[in-house]
Design a protein that fits this description.
Elements (H helix, E strand, L loop, with lengths): L14 E4 L6 H5 L5 E6 L1 H17 L3 E6 L6 H14 L3 E6 L1 H14 L2 E6 L11 E5 L5 E6 L6 E5 H6 L2 H24 L11 H26 L5 H21 L3 H9 L10 H15 L4 H14 L15 H11 L15 H22 L2
Parallel strand pairs: 1-8, 2-3, 2-4, 4-5, 5-8
Antiparallel strand pairs: 6-7
Helix pairs in contact: 3-4, 6-7, 6-8, 6-10, 7-8, 9-10, 9-12, 10-11, 10-13, 11-13, 12-13
């Protein structure tokens, strides 16, 4: 059993959320440096690039943009480091989804610059964290990189978030939904959070607040985002997906749900599913693995369906997985360095494989009942 006794809570220096706050980027960033590099993919830069550089320029921060090529891989990070050094920038602004932000955090770590995390979607809890999830060029999970520093500023424009594809907003709900279950497992086991210490009560409470916020607001928030509307429910869920889940997972700890996600990334068939979509399958698998009662697991399955989240392996691209594929997922999920070992009991690949299969059957049955 883990015997760590130190409790640690860490967070970004500043978090700003609201409709139209993109136009305030320069006012906030001016205190961080004089020259900024804005990094995002082509789609993101088309949406926010001009407004970001105009806001920075209006506040005497010289700004240029650079296209992120889609994968938070070592090769792409090394390329962006060289670009930042060539431009002599002292602030890197990561714009977009989790992978772009993770790449920007890695660039900041390598160069010692300031860093602004500017998510344009509420699709993951990456924006507030001090880690990057590193993938291979082919999109397979490789490892986590941990940093001493958090983003100096996290800036979330909810008008931009509401205008993004609804699928990504749903994906953020899935990622945030896992937060409470994983933080609770870590707390109960005396396990380690991302910083290698015990979670605080504050982190556990924040994780629980993420869960209750989603249960109260997610369905109506998704409907609003489908209409590109910003409502109080959209504001609430954006905060849950980004701030509450970000603080909750990092200071509260991860457990089985994200380990199952990492295992699923080993299969090419799942590469078309988003991070959160694979995490949701991981969450249902964790609940089965933990032996949660049938009524509660069914409740989470029904909530997932109401939001529009995957509940079966077929939903994430695995129509008829082989035994070899399921074994590969389970073995990867149980790697000695994986967070699944924060569960309050010994976990084996066989148990994980069976939990994934059982969760899949529960999801299939629920969809059949609903005629989906």
């Amino acid at each position: 059993m883990i015997t760590v006794t130190t409790r640690t809570f860490k967070s970004p220096a500043s978090y700003v959320q609201g409709r139209g706050v993109l136009d305030d980027l320069g006012a906030h960033a001016a205190a961080l440096g004089e020259t900024a590099l804005v990094v995002g993919d082509d789609v993101v830069l088309d949406i926010v690039g001009d407004r970001a550089t105009e806001s920075l320029g209006a506040n005497d921060v010289e700004a240029t943009t650079e296209t992120f090529r889609g994968e938070a891989s070592t090769a792409e990070i090394d390329r962006l480091v060289e670009v930042l050094r060539e431009r002599d920038a002292d602030v890197v602004v990561g714009a977009g989804g989790g992978k772009a932000l993770d790449a920007a955090k890695a660039v900041r770590e390598a160069t010692g610059t300031a860093m602004v995390s500017m998510p344009t979607v509420a699709s993951t809890d990456a924006p507030t964290s001090s880690l990057s999830v590193i993938y291979t060029e082919a999109g397979e999970f490789e490892e986590y990189w941990f940093y001493e520093e958090h983003p100096d500023l996290v800036l979330v424009d909810t008008e931009v978030v509401a205008g993004a594809p609804t699928r990504l907003f749903r994906s953020g709900v899935a990622d945030a939904l896992a937060t409470w279950f994983e933080a609770d497992a870590t707390y109960r086991s005396g396990g380690r959070n991302v910083f290698g210490d015990r979670p605080t009560r504050a982190a556990r409470s924040i994780a629980k607040l993420a869960y209750t916020t989603l249960r109260e607001h997610a369905v109506s928030a998704v409907r609003a985002v489908e209409a590109n509307a910003v409502t109080e429910s959209v504001e609430a869920v954006t905060e849950a997906n980004t701030l509450l889940s970000g603080l909750g997972f990092e200071s509260g700890g991860l457990a089985a749900a994200h380990s199952v996600h990492n295992g699923l990334t080993q299969l090419e068939e799942t590469h078309g599913a988003t991070h959160g979509e694979k995490v949701n399958v991981g969450t249902l698998s964790q609940l089965v693995l933990e032996g949660r009662d049938d009524a509660f697991v069914s409740e989470i399955v029904e909530f997932s369906l109401a939001v529009g989240l995957p509940v079966t392996l077929a939903d994430i691209g695995l129509e008829d997985p082989t035994d070899e594929q399921l074994d590969a997922v389970a073995e990867a999920a149980c790697d000695p360095d994986e967070t699944i070992h924060n569960e309050p009991f010994e976990v084996t690949p066989a148990a994980v494989r069976d939990a994934i299969c059982a969760a899949d059957e529960l999801g299939r049955a629920a969809k059949a009942r609903d005629g989906r």
